[in-house]
UniProtKB/TrEMBL annotation:
Keywords: ATP-binding, Cytoplasm, Kinase, Nucleotide-binding, Transferase. Belongs to the cytidylate kinase family. Type 1 subfamily. This is Cytidylate kinase. Its main location: cytoplasm. It is found in: Cytoplasm. GO terms for cellular component: cytosol. InterPro entries: Cytidylate_kin, Cytidylate_kinase_dom, P-loop_NTPase. Pfam families: Cytidylate_kin. ATP binds at G11, P12, A13, G14, A15, G16, K17, S18, T19.
Length: 231
């Protein structure tokens, strides 16, 4: 049976996980699984239906009605929520905040984790999130814990939003990031933490190409004895 490779990338909000994981996937010809996008799609569903994040019973019931899938068109990831492409709607701050809030509920996590595990068992994947190395892919061939200071992460998010013409406050963005860090690290189920066998990569003073090269170097060192399986 052909060996299937898995890379797990964890870290706090705004650390650049999605951008980095997507670039590494392209270099290795892996499937990139943006688990955060899947949680955001769930969150968008709850927001659209006016379900408060604090209503655990309603969230749990509604989660059963949600179907979230990931597909690729022209090399670009598309997030499909109940048959609708919502890729352009899930990066809004209110959606991200809702996703963090509802991810503590087991019915939400259970449904998405099952989908993620199933995909990783069949394909070479790089998957990013907050509990990939600790819960979703505990036996991944490489685990990365990607982080950066809250100031750097806030500045990056601010520049991303303003480039899109959205009005926002750098101070408010950093406050939101700090709040989300605390919530993610202190939630009851699958809290954000660095896996014992994960490699810490602080991107505060690194460029995207430097981070990508570092992860590729680690992957090849650990898994490419005897040559690349893609040759």
């Amino acid at each position: 049976m052909k060996k299937v490779y898995n890379i797990a990338v964890d870290g706090p909000a705004g650390a650049g996980k999605s951008t980095i994981a997507r670039s590494v996937a392209e270099k290795l010809n892996f499937v990139y699984v943006d688990t955060g996008a899947m949680y955001r799609a769930m969150a968008l569903h709850f927001l659209r239906n006016g379900i408060p994040a604090a209503d655990e019973a309603a969230i749990s019931k509604s989660a059963e009605e949600v179907d979230v899938t990931i597909s690729y068109e022209n090399g670009m990831q598309q997030v499909i929520l109940n048959g609708e492409n919502v890729s352009g709607l899930i990066r809004r701050p209110e959606v991200s905040s809702m996703a963090s809030a509802v991810s503590i509920y087991m019915p939400v996590r259970r449904k998405l984790v099952e989908l993620q595990k199933n995909l990783a068992s069949k394909e070479n994947v790089i998957m990013d999130g907050r509990d990939i190395g600790t819960c979703v892919l505990p036996h991944a061939d490489l685990k990365i814990y990607l982080t950066a200071s809250s100031q750097v992460r806030a500045k990056r998010r601010y520049e991303e939003l303003t480039a899109k013409g959205e009005e926002c406050s750098l101070k408010n963005i950093e406050s939101d990031i700090i709040e989300r860090d605390y919530r993610d690290m202190n939630r009851e189920h699958s809290p954000l933490k660095q896996a014992e066998d994960a490699v810490l990569v602080d991107t505060s003073a690194m460029t995207i190409p430097q981070v990508v090269d570092r992860i590729l170097q680690l992957f090849y060192e650990r898994n490419m004895e005897g040559g690349s399986p893609w040759k």
